Amino acid sequence: MGKVSIIIQDEKYTTDASPSWNGFNHQGRIGVLVVLTMINNLKLSLNACNSYELELEWLEDFSIKKDNDYIAIHQVKTYNKTAPSEYKEAIWLLLAKVTDFPNIKKCYLHSTSKISNLKDLETRLYEYKPPKKETKRSENEEDNEKDKNKKEDNKKYWTPRQCHDYVKSTGKYKEVFAKFEVYKYEDDCQHCNMDEVEDKIKNQLSIFYKDNIKTPEHLNRAYLHLLGLVDKHIRDRHINVQAGHKSEKATINFQKIYEIIIANYELPSKEYITYQLRERFTKLTNEYFADLILEVEDEIIDRKSIMNVNRVINSVLKLDEEEFIKFCMKITPNHEVNDENPDSLLNALSTLISETHMNDGFLEILKRIQNQIDVGKFTFIKLGPEKLNVSYLPTTIIDTYHKQRTGRIIEKILKNSNDDSLLEIDVMITKNINLPRLKPEKINSDIPDHEIDSEVDVHTEIYHNRISKIKNIRMLDIENAKGEIDE
Description:
Distance between the termini: 62 Å
Strand content: 5-15%
Helix content: 40-55%
Largest sheet: 6 strands, mixed
Oligomer: single chain
Structural class: alpha/beta
Radius of gyration: 26 Å
Strand order of the largest sheet: 5-4-3-2-1-6
């Protein structure tokens, strides 16, 4: 098959969902699980792994290539549905790709729900009603979608109906269906719930290690490093798309995965802690956003209430490791983290991306305030009475006011005065606390001046100067902040 025809075929199907998923969600984890299973089943060595690649979000959700040829493609569905007919569109897409790429040996469908009655699926799929044709939209609908269409840049992927018609027209239905399977995991189960995939990955790691028993901590760290590797490649893919380099595919050589498996993870690292926080953020926000969708469907809230949550989630997924840690510390300004010290990060895990503080604080603020957030700085910007921009930072602070306890929160915030991101903040939004300012008007009188006669004195003077640079930051609870920002 020539290069031209390959390019044409890629354009039929190529979509890019990488901005909406990452290495820590279900698709990314299933990709890791499949690769580990292959390494174990084929007993691949480090050198043998060099021939294999995991390709992300190009021809399919993920694909396996050997010597640059596709050998298997995988589509992952998280439907809460069990009828085989609910998956017919996904299956026709897979079959069309196998028709065009005869070198592909297998195409797999992954499901989080048990698909009932797979017997005689070949016959029943052929007899199902074809997928619906896309209907032409009205002019008003087209106008409303104008911006979206520009972003999609005239995608050329085929619809399920086109794939259905194409496969049947070739007369190769039986031949290509023979390559289709609902993926079977190591326990002979043909579905994998979202809360099961972590255990399955760790089980494959244990199979790899065999008698070389690893601690639970080692397994967890290896697991998170694997997800982090996929996440990095997905973010790189998104950056390439944003830069107009859409043909740059996100592929991971199996050797990189093998090297992660055999690395020593008995001691925690900053990288591992970052991966742990990323996984926590992904799990927590996925659950929160799913709850919001149900609230919209039940008409408890309107769609505007989910816009800022969606914007922030998508923006955070694009951050690299350093940017992500800075984001975590910014929205929890009372943290006690030295981001250069892994032990400090490890000790502070309970305060960063805490479920209660995120749900009741940071995410609740994003839900309640409807003025569009600046996703570059994760702040709301409002023109103040003196015609100056006022910067409002949504935080994870959910405490009620208490003189001593609130005082300790403020003390921790002021200790983080070396964080440049705080210098631009005018207001911190909390769940319950209202304060006219964080610091006394003469806070600098509490810091004695030093003669600069030594290196210690230099650092003291720098600290003195940075404290004096912090604005007179106010604290507002959600209701008062909403009143100022959404008025």
